[in-house]
Amino acid sequence: MITPMQIKLARTALGLGVRELATIAEIAPSTIHRFETDKGSMHSRTLDRVQQVLEERGVIFISADENAGPGIRTRK
């Protein structure tokens, strides 16, 4: 499962504002804002949709391992 910080990092790396991402993912901006600030959760379907939108635009989500926490990369 991707983390709030990963969504914020991915969104920022793509130059998307909260409202832009919300429009593309067809969800409320407040949902993204609450999730990114750890003040709420997202339904799994909503989180899957946000992840799909970000991945379609070139983000690769990296899971945490024994050496580092979760992160993102962008495709070339």
Automatic annotation (TrEMBL):
Transmembrane segments: none annotated. This is Transcriptional regulator. Residues 7-61 form the HTH cro/C1-type domain. It comes from Caulobacter flavus. CDD domains: HTH_XRE. Signal peptide: none annotated. PROSITE patterns: HTH_CROC1 (PS50943). It comes from the Bacteria. GO terms for molecular function: DNA binding.
